[in-house]
Amino acid sequence: MGFNTTVVVMNDAGDQIANDPTFGKKLAQAIRGMFGDRGPIDVSAGNHLNAATVIESHHADNTVLVAVGGNFATALLQTGGYRHHEVQGQEQLLRDLADKLGYRISKKPARNPAPAR
Question: How many domains does the chain have?
Answer without folding.
Answer: 1
